[in-house]
Amino acid sequence: PTCSEDGYTTYTCSRCGDSYTANTVAALGHNYAITITDPTCTADGYTTYTCSRCGDSYTADTVAALGHDYVAVVTEPTCSAQGYTTYTCSRCGNSYTDDYTDTLAHTWDEGVITKAPTAEAQGEITYTCTVCGATRIAPVYYTATTTPEPTAAPTAEPTAEPTAAPTATPTAAPTIEPTAEPTVEPTTEPTTSPTAEPEAVDEEPEPTISAAIVIGGSTSTEAPEATTRTSTSPALTVGIILVIVGCCVAAVAVVVWSRRRGR
Questions:
Q1: Sign of the CA dihedral 107, 113, 115, 120?
Q2: What 3-state class would DSSP assign to 191?
């Protein structure tokens, strides 16, 4: 018998060749040996079954792939190279780079004159990067030097003191002074003597009365026209004087009233 077929005995005649089978033995079946293949980051795992007698085999018990287990390592940028991150799988070693960063600018020192300039040729100054050690050369031009003349220290200008603003002095309003009323002395009538010739009586001129009126700060004098008495009666003279004085007082009162109303 085999793994998959029964065994038996075949009987054959040596003279005529007739034959038959007997003594059947059942098939043995496969004798599988097991081989396990573990899953990887990219391939599934499985188990291989192989028969130790006939070599027949098959796979089963599949396990899904694990996928990569990346570990990141950051490489910092420098003055001459970009920065980046390296991702490496801890199981299979697969790796790739990503997350690039720009290069850094050089950090130059103050420079060293490596070739002094002259009036006929330019010189050179060499700068060195303090990070990566890179160098660059720049031209240096000749410049004539002169000694500066001393300059006088500036003098402080005097500060003008503030002057007080002039204050306006109030002007007093003009006041109207009342004019004194003239007093007229009575004249005594001449008496005639019966035995003597009447003496001629000189006519006295009527006194002139002037009234001063202040209007708007200016003084105007109004002098009433002088009248000549033709009569020597005291009563007539006093009456005329009182009329004139009354007119003057009325004029003054009108002016005062006008000024007060104007305020």
A1: positive
A2: coil
Residue 61's H or E segment, with its range, is strand 57-63
Q: How distant, in Å, are the alpha carbons of 62, 92, 249 from that of 139? A: 73, 55, 110
d(CA 84, CA 188): 145
Cα torsion through 39, 42, 43, 45, rounded to 10 = 10
For the whole model, what pTM was predicted? 0.40
Strands (E) located in 83-167 = 83-89, 95-101, 112-115, 123-128, 135-140
Query: Which structure tokens are listed for 104?
Result: 């850094």
Report the C-alpha gap between 30 and 186 in whole angstroms: 186
Instruction: Determine the Cα–Cα distance for residues 3 and 56; give it in Å rounded to an integer.
Output: 9
178: Cβ contacts below 8 Å, ≥ 6 apart = 252
Residue of 36, 33, 37 lying closest to 55 (CA atoms): 33
> Mean pLDDT of successive 10-residue segments in the chain (263 residues)?
87 90 87 93 94 91 94 92 95 94 92 90 92 90 69 54 47 43 40 39 40 37 41 77 91 86 72
Q: How far is CA 206 from CA 224, 227, 236, in A?
A: 11, 6, 11
Tokens 């009433």 found at: 224
Cα within 13 Å of Cα(148), Cβ side: 3
Alpha-carbon separation of residue 4 from 10, 32, 52, 59 (angstroms): 19, 13, 13, 19
Could you tell me which of 56, 73, 59, 41 has the C-alpha nearest to residue 3? 56
